[in-house]
Amino acid sequence: MASNLHRNGAQRGSAKFDRPLKPRPRASSPSPGSGFRRPNSAVRNDAVPGRVRVAVRLRPRNAEEEMADADFGDCVELQPELKRLKLRRNNWDSDTFEFDEVLTQSASQKRVYEVVAKPVVESVLDGYNGTVMAYGQTGTGKTFTLGQLGEGDTSSRGIMVRSMEDILTDLSPDTDSVTVSYLQLYMETLQDLLNPANDNIPIVEDPRTGDVSLPGATLVDIRDQQSFLELLRIGEANRVAANTKMNTESSRSHAMLTVHIKRSVVESEDIVSTSQNGDVSHLIKPSKPLVRKSKLVVVDLAGSERVHKSGVH
Ligand SMILES: Nc1ncnc2c1ncn2[C@@H]1O[C@H](COP(=O)(O)OP(=O)(O)OP(=O)(O)O)[C@@H](O)[C@H]1O
Fold it and tell me: Where along the chain is composition biased (Low complexity) (predicted)?
């Protein structure tokens, strides 16, 4: 899972508007022969600390895997306190990977949300753009982590539902607004999961600002959690239906939920004046309200082993 932040309107790659997230742990020096490695994104991120964070979550074994693996030792060893994952190749050799967060198979959905997504949601509410992406092979728990509705068991609510709860709690319904689009990318084609007839949405890039827009994608106003859950249900049903029609599986397409926030903010102006006798006085004058726009993007990526087969990159 990865999360990323940048301020609306800021250049990609610019550190200027970075939110000061908790500093990344520094990589230890590789010890000879230990096979110490770091994920690629962590290496890239050294240039701009805190911008991209990568967490790994281990899914608990299901009943079938418990049976099949009964006689074998576990080849994955998590070291959450060191934020490392050790992958055993054989009895004498292993590779070690370092992450920003390592979540064991007993980590709750609440903990995963708080560690991975909540800092991104808080930044989005502060006016930054943020993305949370789940990456992994089919069946590793991407949809469970992001999209679980938790209707029977509220403790299983995933990142999408928990994010919207926090967003709706923080915004003022009188002055602010939340709209949502839900799309699927398959074979370079964008399909609208909220309106299946809309199955070839163009991607338009403003040559001046570099802003990307998706004209024609359905945008739904969200007023309460119930309407958001209904929207997720519709999106999921359309995803299954679209994939059945195309004779594919959900794991071959990327699903992308975008939450657009418009927030009314009043910034005050500090007017400093100096009197004739040299006394300095400050007058805090509220300026007229501004509308601050930001967005949260939650991406359920195609199963990582399918990418070449599906042509989705
Ligand atoms: N942390 C977890 N705890 C309990 N069950 C889990 C967990 N993660 C995943 N599962 C279960 O494992 C199965 C596969 O998970 P899921 O469908 O989320 O995988 P996926 O990575 O999204 O797969 P695909 O790429 O095929 O869409 C589901 O039955 C899900 O309920």
Answer: 26-41
The strand order across the sheet containing 76-79 reads 36-37, 93-98, 84-90, 76-79
Pure H helices in the chain: 40-44, 63-68, 109-112, 118-125, 142-147, 159-170, 225-245, 307-310
pLDDT tens per residue, range 171-207: 999 999 999 999 999 888 899 999 999 988 999 999 9
Q: Which domain covers residue 242, as residue numbers?
A: 109-313
Which tens digits make up the pLDDT trace of 242-270? 777 766 655 678 999 999 999 998 877 77
On whether residue 5 sits in a domain, the answer given is no
Final residue of a structural domain among 75, 91, 107: 107
Query: Are the beta carbons of 161 and 168 closer than 8 angstroms?
Result: no
Same domain flag for 169 and 129: yes
The average confidence (pLDDT) of the chain is 81
Cα of 64 vs centre of ligand 1, distance in Å, is: 14
Q: Which residue did the predictor score with more confidence, 29 or 255?
A: 255
Beta bridge partners of 186: 189
Q: How far is the CA of 57 from the centre of ligand 1 (A)?
A: 11
Rounded Cα distance between 260 and 270, Å, is: 31
Q: Is the pTM higher than 0.90? A: no
Both 64 and 199 in a single domain? no
User: Closest ligand 1 atom, CA of 140?
Assistant: 21
Q: How many CA atoms lie within 13 A of 250 on its CB side?
A: 18
C-beta of 7 in contact with ligand 1 (< 6 A): no
